[in-house]
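queue> pop job 88
queue> type: inverse folding (structure -> sequence)
queue> payload:
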């Protein structure tokens, strides 16, 4: 068989380690084991019924044809209006471009900005897709270590990392995988530090609505226009409204950047599904019902987090601080490395074979020695996972990490 002649750009990209872990879980399940899968990066809730009904309404209205590549007007208008009302942001619908999920928003933003050889700053631990997009653009990922500040990026770290080759910073808060949230004042300083040096900032705000009380949420869409010239927000409906399969997100960027985003998108996906755009526009117009649905999910994630983190800290050799957002616990398992295990991947393998509990190895996020536990799953599953892990690793009395 002739092997496929893959392009250099794509051959340099790595497959997603999060998908690999999910595949291992599926393989065990097929063998008849009761697997607890804590790898999932998506809500375990169904999409709210009223949003499904809006999609049906869109279909009945005949919204089954192409829309503008930027997205249909009601969609871009509803984003601008929602951000104005909720966050006090003042950008125009012309600064919004609909995309097929946050992932495509990020991809479009990177592809319209980066040239081969550009340096892109990415704080560790990072979401797996960031460096792969950079690789696709033939640019260089330059990683910023943040363990010293408990995985919360600071403006000083960014200032130290910027060089004349730096073109872009990609920042994700609330963060996947750490669940940490960069405080608003620090985030502003980070962006200002970049803009001062002519460095662009891509803020992945896909977990914007998942910051636990009394946490603050910051969207860079609220920055003044002269700063936003350098900023692109990647937003998504996937996690917010538990609609990962609908594939809908958006960018918020200057009109000149948006023009290029539209040009690129017009030659690829063209636009996200017409009646999905309609459903999302209607959901944002009905902000009170939508936000009530989000609050209900957030409250449940918070309940799980408050139970899970102390429970993880009772397991011998595990250490985990309290995340302020998203739905992940990023656990330091270096306490169990040594004779039995040399890397966190070995710990994850051991958990898989001995406890049929699947988590994602931190190495894929640039943090060997850590494991990511998703708590977008039932309390029952979390309980079972902790019981099983307690058996194989042993326990100690709960301590604050
Ligand atoms: C940090 C982060 N950004 C972006 C995405 C992309 O989500 P979507 O393309 O479904 O909007 C994800 C999904 O897991 C994510 O975790």
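queue> result:
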């Amino acid at each position: 068989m002739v092997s496929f002649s893959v392009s250099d750009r794509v051959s340099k990209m790595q497959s997603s380690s999060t998908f690999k872990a999910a595949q291992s879980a599926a393989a065990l399940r097929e063998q008849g084991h009761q697997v607890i899968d804590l790898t999932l990066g998506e809500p375990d809730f169904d999409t709210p019924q009223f949003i499904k009904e809006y999609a049906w309404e869109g279909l009945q209205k005949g919204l089954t044809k192409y829309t503008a590549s930027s997205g249909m007007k009601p969609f871009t208008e509803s984003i601008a209006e929602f951000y104005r009302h909720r966050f006090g942001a003042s950008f125009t619908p012309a600064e919004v471009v609909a995309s097929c999920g946050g992932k495509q928003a990020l991809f479009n933003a990177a592809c319209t900005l980066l040239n081969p050889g550009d340096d892109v700053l990415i704080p560790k631990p990072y979401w797996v897709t960031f460096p792969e997009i950079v690789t696709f653009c033939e640019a260089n990922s330059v990683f910023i270590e943040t363990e010293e500040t408990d995985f919360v990026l600071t403006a000083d770290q960014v200032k130290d990392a910027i060089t004349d080759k730096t073109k872009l910073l990609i920042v994700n808060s609330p963060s996947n995988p750490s669940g940490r949230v960069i405080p608003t004042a620090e985030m502003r300083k980070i962006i200002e530090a970049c803009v001062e040096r002519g460095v662009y900032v891509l803020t992945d705000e896909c977990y914007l609505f998942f910051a636990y009380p009394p946490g603050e949420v910051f969207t860079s869409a609220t920055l003044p226009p002269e700063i936003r010239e350098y900023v692109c927000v990647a937003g998504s409906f996937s996690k917010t409204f538990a609609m990962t399969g609908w594939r809908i997100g958006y960018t918020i960027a200057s009109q000149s950047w948006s023009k290029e985003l539209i040009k690129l998108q017009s030659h690829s996906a063209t636009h996200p599904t017409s009646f999905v755009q309609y459903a999302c526009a209607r959901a944002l117009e009905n902000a009170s019902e939508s936000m009530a649905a989000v609050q209900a999910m957030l409250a449940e994630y918070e309940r799980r987090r408050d139970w899970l983190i102390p429970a993880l800290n009772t397991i011998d050799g595990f250490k985990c601080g309290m995340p302020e957002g998203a739905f992940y616990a990023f656990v330091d398992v270096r306490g169990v490395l040594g004779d039995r295990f040399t890397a966190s991947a070995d710990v994850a393998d051991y958990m898989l074979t001995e406890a049929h509990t699947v988590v994602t190895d931190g190495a894929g996020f640039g943090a060997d020695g850590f494991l990511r536990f998703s708590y977008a799953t039932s309390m029952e599953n979390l309980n079972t996972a902790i019981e099983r892990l307690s058996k194989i690793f042993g326990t100690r009395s709960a301590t604050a990490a």
